[in-house]
Write a structure and sequence with these properties.
Layout (H helix, E strand, L loop, with lengths): L8 E5 L4 H12 L3 E6 L11 H7 L3 E6 L5 H15 L4 E4 L14 H26 L10 E6 L12 H21 L4 E8 L13 H10 L8 H12 L10 E4 L7
Parallel strand pairs: 1-2, 1-4, 2-3, 4-5, 5-6, 6-7
Helix pairs in contact: 1-7, 3-4, 4-5
Protein backbone atom coordinates (compact mmCIF):
# COMPACT_ATOMS: atom_id res chain seq x y z
CA UNK A 1 0.00 0.00 0.00
CA UNK A 2 1.41 3.39 -1.04
CA UNK A 3 1.05 6.54 1.06
CA UNK A 4 0.70 9.56 -1.25
CA UNK A 5 -2.78 10.17 0.21
CA UNK A 6 -2.23 8.57 3.61
CA UNK A 7 -4.71 9.80 6.19
CA UNK A 8 -6.74 11.81 3.68
CA UNK A 9 -10.54 11.65 3.62
CA UNK A 10 -11.99 11.64 0.10
CA UNK A 11 -15.45 11.59 -1.46
CA UNK A 12 -15.87 10.31 -5.02
CA UNK A 13 -19.27 10.64 -6.70
CA UNK A 14 -20.29 8.17 -9.38
CA UNK A 15 -17.87 5.77 -7.70
CA UNK A 16 -19.64 2.50 -8.51
CA UNK A 17 -18.58 2.36 -12.16
CA UNK A 18 -16.15 3.56 -14.79
CA UNK A 19 -13.90 6.53 -14.10
CA UNK A 20 -15.27 7.12 -10.60
CA UNK A 21 -14.62 3.50 -9.67
CA UNK A 22 -11.02 3.75 -10.92
CA UNK A 23 -10.44 7.00 -9.01
CA UNK A 24 -11.81 5.54 -5.78
CA UNK A 25 -9.65 2.42 -6.10
CA UNK A 26 -6.55 4.50 -6.83
CA UNK A 27 -7.21 6.82 -3.87
CA UNK A 28 -7.63 3.86 -1.51
CA UNK A 29 -4.47 2.27 -2.85
CA UNK A 30 -2.64 5.50 -2.03
CA UNK A 31 -3.88 5.43 1.57
CA UNK A 32 -7.05 7.55 1.55
CA UNK A 33 -10.29 6.61 3.29
CA UNK A 34 -12.85 6.88 0.49
CA UNK A 35 -16.58 7.58 0.62
CA UNK A 36 -18.16 6.04 -2.48
CA UNK A 37 -21.25 7.99 -3.56
CA UNK A 38 -23.63 6.73 -6.25
CA UNK A 39 -27.28 5.99 -6.94
CA UNK A 40 -26.51 2.27 -7.07
CA UNK A 41 -23.78 0.11 -5.58
CA UNK A 42 -23.61 -2.27 -8.57
CA UNK A 43 -21.09 -1.40 -11.31
CA UNK A 44 -22.57 -1.07 -14.81
CA UNK A 45 -19.64 -3.03 -16.23
CA UNK A 46 -20.31 -5.93 -13.85
CA UNK A 47 -18.14 -7.45 -11.17
CA UNK A 48 -17.76 -6.77 -7.47
CA UNK A 49 -18.91 -3.49 -5.93
CA UNK A 50 -16.14 -0.92 -5.57
CA UNK A 51 -16.16 -1.10 -1.78
CA UNK A 52 -15.61 -4.86 -1.88
CA UNK A 53 -12.66 -4.52 -4.27
CA UNK A 54 -11.06 -1.89 -2.06
CA UNK A 55 -11.60 -3.91 1.12
CA UNK A 56 -10.12 -7.04 -0.46
CA UNK A 57 -7.00 -5.02 -1.33
CA UNK A 58 -6.67 -3.80 2.25
CA UNK A 59 -8.05 -0.30 1.71
CA UNK A 60 -10.75 1.73 3.46
CA UNK A 61 -14.05 2.57 1.74
CA UNK A 62 -17.74 2.92 2.51
CA UNK A 63 -20.68 3.19 0.11
CA UNK A 64 -23.20 6.05 0.45
CA UNK A 65 -26.33 6.08 -1.68
CA UNK A 66 -26.68 9.62 -3.03
CA UNK A 67 -28.21 11.42 -5.99
CA UNK A 68 -25.87 14.33 -6.72
CA UNK A 69 -28.66 16.26 -8.43
CA UNK A 70 -30.43 16.48 -5.08
CA UNK A 71 -28.88 19.13 -2.82
CA UNK A 72 -30.17 17.47 0.33
CA UNK A 73 -28.54 14.17 -0.69
CA UNK A 74 -25.20 15.90 -1.25
CA UNK A 75 -25.41 17.73 2.06
CA UNK A 76 -26.29 14.51 3.88
CA UNK A 77 -23.39 12.71 2.19
CA UNK A 78 -20.80 15.24 3.36
CA UNK A 79 -22.41 15.45 6.79
CA UNK A 80 -22.05 11.68 7.18
CA UNK A 81 -18.42 11.69 6.05
CA UNK A 82 -17.49 14.52 8.41
CA UNK A 83 -19.37 12.91 11.30
CA UNK A 84 -17.33 9.74 10.79
CA UNK A 85 -13.91 11.19 9.93
CA UNK A 86 -13.93 14.74 11.26
CA UNK A 87 -13.00 16.44 7.97
CA UNK A 88 -13.04 16.32 4.18
CA UNK A 89 -9.74 16.55 2.30
CA UNK A 90 -10.70 15.72 -1.30
CA UNK A 91 -14.01 16.06 -3.13
CA UNK A 92 -14.23 14.46 -6.58
CA UNK A 93 -17.33 15.52 -8.52
CA UNK A 94 -17.43 12.78 -11.14
CA UNK A 95 -21.05 11.57 -11.46
CA UNK A 96 -22.45 12.26 -14.92
CA UNK A 97 -25.03 11.25 -17.49
CA UNK A 98 -25.75 12.07 -21.14
CA UNK A 99 -28.64 12.31 -23.60
CA UNK A 100 -27.04 11.55 -26.97
CA UNK A 101 -29.16 14.16 -28.76
CA UNK A 102 -28.37 17.23 -30.90
CA UNK A 103 -30.17 20.55 -30.45
CA UNK A 104 -33.39 19.88 -32.36
CA UNK A 105 -33.82 16.38 -30.94
CA UNK A 106 -33.22 17.41 -27.34
CA UNK A 107 -36.41 17.62 -25.33
CA UNK A 108 -36.53 20.00 -22.36
CA UNK A 109 -36.74 17.00 -20.03
CA UNK A 110 -33.50 15.58 -21.45
CA UNK A 111 -31.77 18.93 -21.10
CA UNK A 112 -32.93 19.25 -17.50
CA UNK A 113 -31.87 15.69 -16.62
CA UNK A 114 -28.31 16.08 -17.95
CA UNK A 115 -27.74 19.54 -16.47
CA UNK A 116 -29.23 18.40 -13.15
CA UNK A 117 -26.64 15.65 -12.67
CA UNK A 118 -23.62 16.96 -14.55
CA UNK A 119 -23.66 20.63 -13.64
CA UNK A 120 -26.02 21.17 -10.71
CA UNK A 121 -24.49 18.05 -9.13
CA UNK A 122 -21.01 19.58 -9.35
CA UNK A 123 -22.32 22.90 -8.05
CA UNK A 124 -23.87 21.18 -5.02
CA UNK A 125 -20.68 19.16 -4.46
CA UNK A 126 -18.39 22.20 -4.68
CA UNK A 127 -20.69 24.28 -2.49
CA UNK A 128 -20.93 21.77 0.34
CA UNK A 129 -17.25 20.82 0.13
CA UNK A 130 -16.08 24.44 0.32
CA UNK A 131 -18.34 25.08 3.31
CA UNK A 132 -16.75 22.18 5.15
CA UNK A 133 -13.19 22.95 4.09
CA UNK A 134 -13.46 26.53 5.37
CA UNK A 135 -14.05 25.16 8.87
CA UNK A 136 -10.98 22.94 9.05
CA UNK A 137 -7.27 23.47 9.55
CA UNK A 138 -4.98 22.98 6.54
CA UNK A 139 -3.09 19.77 5.92
CA UNK A 140 0.14 20.86 4.33
CA UNK A 141 -0.67 24.05 2.42
CA UNK A 142 -4.31 23.26 1.61
CA UNK A 143 -7.52 23.12 3.64
CA UNK A 144 -8.97 20.86 0.97
CA UNK A 145 -9.00 19.95 -2.70
CA UNK A 146 -11.83 19.70 -5.21
CA UNK A 147 -11.55 17.82 -8.50
CA UNK A 148 -14.32 18.22 -11.06
CA UNK A 149 -14.51 15.81 -13.98
CA UNK A 150 -15.07 17.69 -17.22
CA UNK A 151 -14.52 16.44 -20.75
CA UNK A 152 -12.67 17.33 -23.93
CA UNK A 153 -16.21 18.00 -25.16
CA UNK A 154 -16.43 20.90 -22.77
CA UNK A 155 -13.65 22.47 -24.86
CA UNK A 156 -14.60 21.42 -28.40
CA UNK A 157 -18.03 20.49 -29.73
CA UNK A 158 -19.64 17.21 -28.69
CA UNK A 159 -21.09 15.72 -31.91
CA UNK A 160 -24.72 14.79 -31.41
CA UNK A 161 -24.94 15.55 -27.69
CA UNK A 162 -25.60 19.21 -26.95
CA UNK A 163 -26.61 18.89 -23.27
CA UNK A 164 -23.51 16.87 -22.35
CA UNK A 165 -21.11 19.29 -24.03
CA UNK A 166 -22.74 22.32 -22.43
CA UNK A 167 -22.66 20.69 -19.00
CA UNK A 168 -18.96 19.89 -19.29
CA UNK A 169 -18.12 23.39 -20.48
CA UNK A 170 -19.87 24.51 -17.32
CA UNK A 171 -17.70 22.17 -15.24
CA UNK A 172 -14.56 23.85 -16.54
CA UNK A 173 -15.87 27.34 -15.80
CA UNK A 174 -17.15 26.33 -12.36
CA UNK A 175 -13.68 25.01 -11.55
CA UNK A 176 -11.98 28.28 -12.48
CA UNK A 177 -14.43 30.39 -10.50
CA UNK A 178 -14.19 28.29 -7.34
CA UNK A 179 -10.39 28.21 -7.61
CA UNK A 180 -10.12 31.98 -7.98
CA UNK A 181 -12.65 32.78 -5.26
CA UNK A 182 -11.21 30.46 -2.60
CA UNK A 183 -7.46 30.35 -3.25
CA UNK A 184 -6.82 32.79 -0.41
CA UNK A 185 -8.70 30.38 1.85
CA UNK A 186 -6.24 27.61 0.80
CA UNK A 187 -8.82 25.59 -1.14
CA UNK A 188 -7.53 24.02 -4.35
CA UNK A 189 -9.95 23.34 -7.22
CA UNK A 190 -9.02 21.70 -10.53
CA UNK A 191 -10.72 19.93 -13.41
CA UNK A 192 -9.79 16.80 -15.37
CA UNK A 193 -11.12 16.59 -18.93
CA UNK A 194 -10.87 13.06 -20.32
CA UNK A 195 -10.88 12.12 -23.99
CA UNK A 196 -12.34 8.82 -25.14
CA UNK A 197 -12.18 6.52 -22.13
CA UNK A 198 -13.43 2.95 -22.51
CA UNK A 199 -15.37 2.08 -19.36
CA UNK A 200 -17.59 -0.82 -20.34
CA UNK A 201 -20.71 1.31 -20.10
CA UNK A 202 -23.46 0.06 -22.44
CA UNK A 203 -25.48 2.03 -24.97
CA UNK A 204 -24.22 5.19 -26.65
CA UNK A 205 -20.66 4.70 -25.41
CA UNK A 206 -20.40 1.54 -27.53
CA UNK A 207 -21.91 2.99 -30.71
CA UNK A 208 -19.65 1.82 -33.60
CA UNK A 209 -19.82 5.14 -35.44
CA UNK A 210 -18.82 7.08 -32.33
CA UNK A 211 -16.01 4.64 -31.58
CA UNK A 212 -14.71 4.98 -35.14
CA UNK A 213 -14.83 8.78 -34.89
CA UNK A 214 -12.95 8.72 -31.58
CA UNK A 215 -10.35 6.28 -32.96
CA UNK A 216 -9.65 8.55 -35.92
CA UNK A 217 -9.40 11.62 -33.68
CA UNK A 218 -7.07 10.15 -31.04
CA UNK A 219 -3.34 10.28 -32.02
CA UNK A 220 -2.23 7.88 -29.28
CA UNK A 221 -2.61 4.31 -30.56
CA UNK A 222 -5.28 3.28 -28.03
CA UNK A 223 -8.31 4.65 -26.27
CA UNK A 224 -8.02 5.89 -22.72
CA UNK A 225 -8.56 3.69 -19.70
CA UNK A 226 -10.25 4.74 -16.45
CA UNK A 227 -6.87 4.31 -14.76
CA UNK A 228 -5.43 7.09 -16.94
CA UNK A 229 -7.87 9.54 -15.38
CA UNK A 230 -7.39 8.04 -11.92
CA UNK A 231 -3.64 8.65 -12.10
CA UNK A 232 -4.27 12.31 -12.89
CA UNK A 233 -6.74 12.53 -10.00
CA UNK A 234 -4.21 11.08 -7.53
CA UNK A 235 -1.71 13.74 -8.59
CA UNK A 236 -4.21 16.59 -8.19
CA UNK A 237 -5.36 15.22 -4.82
CA UNK A 238 -1.81 15.10 -3.49
CA UNK A 239 0.50 17.70 -1.98
CA UNK A 240 2.52 17.56 -5.20
CA UNK A 241 -0.10 19.73 -6.93
CA UNK A 242 -0.65 22.54 -4.42
CA UNK A 243 0.37 25.47 -6.67
CA UNK A 244 -1.89 24.11 -9.43
CA UNK A 245 -5.40 25.50 -9.05
CA UNK A 246 -8.05 26.52 -11.57
CA UNK A 247 -6.40 24.21 -14.11
CA UNK A 248 -8.09 21.92 -16.62
CA UNK A 249 -5.91 18.85 -17.03
CA UNK A 250 -6.73 17.19 -20.36
CA UNK A 251 -6.25 13.40 -20.48
CA UNK A 252 -7.10 12.65 -24.11
CA UNK A 253 -4.24 10.87 -25.88
CA UNK A 254 -3.52 14.00 -27.91
CA UNK A 255 -7.07 14.52 -29.28
CA UNK A 256 -7.00 18.30 -28.78
CA UNK A 257 -3.45 18.57 -30.09
CA UNK A 258 -4.28 17.01 -33.46
Amino acid sequence: MSSVLAGRIAVVTGASSGIGRAIAIAFAREGAAVALADVTEQPVEGGEPTAALIARAGGSAAFHRADVGDREDVDALIDAVVARHGRLDVMVNNAATYSGTPLLDTEPAQWDAVLRVNLAGQFFGCRRAVRQMLTQEPRGEARGRIINIGSQHGIVSCPGDLPYGVSKAGSIYLTRQVAADYAKELIVCNCISPGKIVTGAPGLAQDPARLDYARRRTPWPRFGRPEDVANAAVFLASDQATFITGANLVVDGGWLAA
